[in-house]
Design brief:
82 residues, alpha+beta, NE0471 N-terminal domain-like, three-stranded antiparallel β-sheet
Amino acid sequence: MTISAERVTFDDDTMWVALSDGRTLGVPLAWFPRLLAAPPAARAAVEIGAFGLHWQALDEDISVAGLLAGQGDRTAEGERAA
């Protein structure tokens, strides 16, 4: 079974992601510094894809699998050369 995001909303401190299996995840914005620093209009410009969330203007991509695994921003880990 593939679980995908259906809707994303925000409050002051949390990103809420409604999933296709009926669950809703509440994720601290502190986990994603680009989203935390972004104005509400930029946060609302999320594109929901089959595997996750994308914000073109913020250069931010978040996978549903990562959210389900409890992973925050891993940019610093990904900056190392392979």
